[in-house]
Protein 1
Amino acid sequence: MHLIAGEDGLARPAWAAVDPLLRDYYDHEWGVPVLDETGLFERLSLEAFQSGLSWVTILRKRPAFRAAFAGFEADAVARFDEDDAARLMADAGIVRNRRKVDATIQNARATVALREQGGLPALIWSFQPETTPVPASYAEVPTQSAESLALSKELKRRGFAHVGPTTMFALMEAVGIVDTHLVGSHRRGTSGIWAADGTRAAAAAEASTPTERGIA
């Protein structure tokens, strides 16, 4: 069963239908457009930390992550040094993975540097595709796309780490750049960016032109 109707009568995918934390995240955050630098840097960081783990683990640790990484303010994290890295590795509240800790600090510095070329939000959103998947089942939900591959390559070129195409597709799903809510879900087509049929919502389509996108 791909969708489960809750006690409120709303249809959700199985992964979001039982655990209250995941249900709340699905109902109010996943797929909602994130357009600010801090919000995108946080999501980019958490998606990297999630690699190899369950998302609910990251959600449970998110308050600790925010405390440990200065609210994911890029300027603050960019100033982290070896002492900060050691502090983070001693923090049981977060995922203690040195490569991911170092990548987050590196990505903060890359985010600050990127402001001179328009900023992180403009870069990430420039890879929004013309259409989004219309999955009726989990099997129809892709794990990466031409756009996520291109975004991964561009971020790496700009000095970012731990930004593989699968992680970037997960980011794009989380922040509304693509809509992979299953057909029939109460969240399908509610972002204001995408219509339920996979085409861009009228207002979003009018605001975008081919020259603004990262790929043709």
Protein 2
Amino acid sequence: MAAADAVLPTAGHGAMESWLQSRSDVRERRGLVRAASPIRLSAAGAMLDLASNDYLGLSRDPRVTAAAVDAVQRYGAGARASRVVNGTLPVHAELEKQLCHLTGAESALAFSSGYLANLGVLGALGGPGTLLILDAHVHASLLDAARLSRSPVAIVPHGDLGEVATALQTRTQPRAVVVVESLYSVLGDGANLTALAALCASHDAWLLVDEAHGIGVAGAGRGAVHAAGLAGAGNVLLTVTLSKALGAQGGAVLGSAALREHLLNTARPFIFDTALAPAAAAAASKAAQIIAADPTLVARLQENAATLARLCGIERSPGAVQSIPMVSADHAVRAAAGLRAAGVRVGCFRPPSVPDGVSRLRVTAQADLTPAEMEYAAGLLRTVARAHPANVSEQAGLGRNRNDI
């Protein structure tokens, strides 16, 4: 029989299709079906956005978009190559300079996403001789990075300094990295960076702080590490995303010049990836300049976050994210749909996206919300909270949390 006439087996295809359908059925039964449908701009413009991470509204700031347009016209739509080939452009160097100015770090290295920045730094620092100690609530990218790093990994209870200390004291590896977020993406609470940095210093360990939700939000926008007086500390490393308060796209690792040199030569998501698109790099660079020059923008965000929490009758979280627990994933989905129908878009977090298995509405304050808009949104949120009262015990063990993805 000629190769072109060969009949390919179909049993495996059927088995795979059956498995995919079974997983779909499980998601449907648990109320965990997601969609990635395009937002209609005409409808989105009429809605109050309490769901996106564009905390300062910089993605639409004319200064930021003008910088992106100029970069496209000057350098083209893409970087065309890896940074270590010929993809490093002046706009990348300027971005890294502005990130250092904003955060107080000695050096920075830009990646094409915040996810890849986390994969890159833990992959480059990890290995059999490095113990990675992760807070249970860190982002999925950090969990994935730890698994891919070939390192021994310890997951400690959220915010538990005692467990971090125990892991550091009992380790047998010569190196250790404690991994936390400055402001957590679901609950919105913050890490005790001062205590963690001191603990790491006393045990000759690094502290890696994911500032994804801290940059542009905490410490007059310079981040929680800067606010804690830890900028430039030798044992404190940062990762940032450029797609949240900076309103663009990409990520970066910040730390010492020696760290940057190590990453440039060993971080696989940097070496083998096409460089960050010029438009995104220029936009993020301009946003960093705006935040550094105008702290009133961040102050408005903090005021709106406090007002939103007060009007909703929930405990104020230190960042932009305010969290409203829901009784179940199904309740969360229906509550979010009802709010959307009323003109308010909020985040709907369900397992496995939530680290504790408790579904919730994730409400993010925005710097450009008016008092009238917040009053309207808060009134709807209060109504939803009364209609869907939280009962955390009912969700215990529901599905798998993101640590088990």
Protein 3
Amino acid sequence: MTNPPTISHWLNNDVFTGTSGQSAPVTNPATGQVTGQVALASVEDAQTVINAAVAAFPAWRDTSITKRVQTLFAFRELLNARRGELAAIITAEHGKVLSDAMGEVARGIEVVEFACGIPHLLKGGYSENASTNVDVYNIRQALGPVAIIAPFNFPAMVPMWFFAIAIAAGNTVVVKPSEKDPSSSLWMAELWKEAGLPDGVFNVLQGDKTAVDELLTNPAIKAVSFVGSTPIAQYVYRTATASGKRVQALGGAKNHAVVLPDADLDLAADSMVNAG
């Protein structure tokens, strides 16, 4: 019997195995079979991946918006043509049915398409005589390397919600997928490479709390986007803001609903079960 493949990190448009020697099993929920071993980053591994994003930032920030969007369009076309591959990966590691996985990918593509309109969204403003003889300008500038900590339940959609906008706006990205279904992010990294994204702009850091804590505290990471449980969202927000970062920490969104007294209870119950 062959050993299951190792699911590694990604930096500078190539696989990075890391040096920690630590890994965790990835299973197919339908069968319980171990299908891979995901690398668990050490602090040093995390710093190596972050440093790739740091090195790539100046050139990507200075790349014209037109050229950035051309790369984004190329990524969108590849993603749209091969969405079935990504859905199959999601199903194999997460366990949701293929039609549901295809829906997840479609919702992610919507944000990639939205990000293709970034030239209009990045416009600044100018107000003449906002106060007496005082003119006011505002401009939008890239922050730098940013981190995305993704949840188990939407391993492709949630990262796409964040990284499409971040990359279009001139930032570089480090994605930390859930260690339960880590392969989607690596597949998307390969697609970014095929689309022509320069080295170091899109990176994947596999791991557990060690990797997360380095992203939350490393001064090179300028912002963090997170989706997950409420207690972890609070931890992410508290830790990252203490390090001076901008933070989106989205927690606890588990299909909540308000059922009013005049509701059709059978329909309401059915809808809530389907939503969950």
